[in-house]
Amino acid sequence: MRLEFRKMHGAGNDFVVVDTRARAPLTPQEARALADRRRGVGCDQVIGLEAPRGQGGQGGQGAQGGQGADVFMRIRNPDGSEAGACGNATRCVAELLRTATGSTSVTIRTISGDLPATYRGDGIWSVDMGAPRLAWQDVPLAHACDTLAIPLEIEDLRKPASLSMGNPHATFFVDDLAEVDIPRLGPILEHAPIFPERANIGFAQVLAPDRIRLRVWERGAGLTLACGSGACAALVNAARRGLTGRAATLILDGGELRIEWRADDHVIMTGPTATAFTGTIDLA
Predict the structure, then answer these.
(1) Span 191-233, pLDDT tens digits
(2) Segment holding 247, helix H or strand E
(3) CB neighbours of 200 closer than 8 A, spacing ≥ 6?
């Protein structure tokens, strides 16, 4: 079976986007095949576009019922597992919708909620990622604790701040990011017992009250060039700890994102989109 796809990225966080509105949704096995960087197309996540049935969940604006969303975005990691939210992919899908319809304001539904997006020009989109969920049971964590300093330590890394942005996140604040062996420590921390659903692990170095250097080990994907929801989590956690203000530029391996934690508690992520190429693949 030949399948059309579009390879896109947001600040280097790359995706294979497939419109499945006229066919069955992608299976975990198909997602794994597409994401394979040697035998498939290769990507950090596979994005399947589906008709926006059901309700928007608790993220974003939380629109109810089948109305209010332009498309449903299903996110699968390279291991076939399903992710709840992806800020960089949301911008890419918004750009696809704009190209198809001309609309500069769209709403994208995920299993974690509805994410409204607004076009800023030159391929730049702002996405309302919704309010961070700060309670331990909402992350979720395995037991009650202070999410501003959860009891997790490994070598020189101690007591990260944790929250959910549709996906579970933990952010370690470090003095020198270059000294952290993320490929070795990331998978250990992703699977730490305190995270019953695993977690995305951020490693952040605060450079100034409005600048943060960030790298993220994503659950099910590994170390990526950028993580939109991880950038949102890092800014919120930094602001909660008094390390920054409520808005900052996040410097990632693949580019920069602007994150603002507004007074209404919603987190706004602004960043670029790009199409690398389009093609077809025989999944057989």
Answers:
(1) 999 999 999 999 999 999 999 999 999 999 999 999 999 999 9
(2) strand 247-252
(3) 167, 168, 169, 170, 190, 216, 217, 218, 219, 227, 229, 230, 233
d(CA 160, CA 177): 14
Do 119 and 102 form a contact (C-beta atoms < 8 A)? no
Structural domains for the chain = 2-129+272-282 (3.10.310.10), 136-265 (3.10.310.10)
Active site residue 86: yes
Site of tokens 């993580």: 227
Q: 190 and 217 in contact (C-beta within 8 Å)? A: yes
Q: Are 213 and 251 in contact (CB under 8 A)?
A: yes
Buried b (16+ CB within 10 A) or exposed e, 235-248: bbbbbbeebbebeb
**Tokens linked to 138:** 């909402």
pLDDT tens readout for residues 109-138? 999 999 999 999 999 999 999 999 999 999
**Euclidean distance between CA atoms 247 and 232, whole angstroms:** 10
Catalytic residue among 43, 86, 92, 232: 86
Answer yes or no: pTM beyond 0.85: yes
- Cα 31 to Cα 209: distance, rounded to the nearest angstrom: 40
Beta-strand relationship, 59-60 and 113-121:
parallel
d(CA 147, CA 102): 42
Alpha helices in 39-194 (DSSP H): 87-101, 182-190
What CA–CA distance (Å, rounded) separates 140 from 103? Answer: 36
Catalytic residue of the set 43, 92, 227, 232: 227
- The answer to whether 232 is a known catalytic residue is no
